[in-house]
Amino acid sequence: MPSIFISGSGRRLGSILAIEFANKGWDIAIHYNSSEERANATAKEISSYGVKTIKVKADVRSESELKIAINEAYQSLGGIDVLVNNAGIFPAMKSLSELETDFWDNVMNTNLRSQFITSKLFSSIAKPGSRIVNIASLGAYQIWKGRMAYNVSKAGVLQLTRALARELAPNISVNVVCPGAIYMPSDPSIVDTSLISVEKVPMKRLGSALDVFDAVWFFATASTYITGQSLIVDGGYELTS
């Protein structure tokens, strides 16, 4: 069976990605940091699909913790075919005058530096034909009021993806999925409707985790000749803004 390591897969989008890959017969490494209870619930649901699963804990801001987690998952699953860099934060709004250096650094370390670290660690153990799928955001292409750190961190993920794609070819393909506003029933407050309103989305609805899964699944299973590419999942919102 193919295997996948999904960072931040204890809850929200990452959890649903893990469950959907398990539903398709993939072995799963569930990564979490502070969401152990929800990671346990995700692992319990995955167990019903008869696939291998392992939970690994690591702060994505810590290279040493990530190295231990990835190596543990690799040993337990007998390899890792796909890395999905999903872990990230959508921090509170701050104007430039309110934006402290520590706040900026935390956003960059969580949303961008962590993807660099996990990709580097994965590339050292991955076999030819492996894939990396990064999760960025529609915010990588836009500038939202009070979201400077977030916008810059996600824009960085786009360039990181392109740089990795060139560096790791021909052995590993690297692509990026950029979700727009995604409604999560378990966390309905996470959608900031001041940024994206349903009325302005051509498809007349917010996205779902399953919409994002379709894009991740494509990059995880498509030809490795497809690399360095970005796929926006936003119902066409970018076309109207």
Notable characteristics:
alpha/beta; single chain; 241 residues; 6 helices; 15% strand; Rossmann fold; seven-stranded parallel sheet
Q: What is the domain total for the residues? A: 1
- Give me the secondary-structure category: alpha/beta
CATH topology: Rossmann fold
Share in β-strands:
15-25%
Give the overall average pLDDT.
Answer: 94
In CATH terms, what is the architecture? 3-Layer(aba) Sandwich
CATH superfamily: NAD(P)-binding Rossmann-like Domain
Question: Can you tell me the CATH class?
Answer: Alpha Beta
| Element-level helix/strand string | EHEHEHEHEHEHE
Rg for CA atoms: 17 Å
- Could you give the order of strands across the largest sheet? 3-2-1-4-5-6-7
Count of beta strands? 7
DSSP summary: helix tally = 6
Largest sheet: 7 strands, parallel
**Gross morphology:** globular
Q: Name the helicity range.
A: 25-40%
End-to-end gap: 42 Å
**Which regions contain 5 or more consecutive residues with pLDDT less than 50?**
none
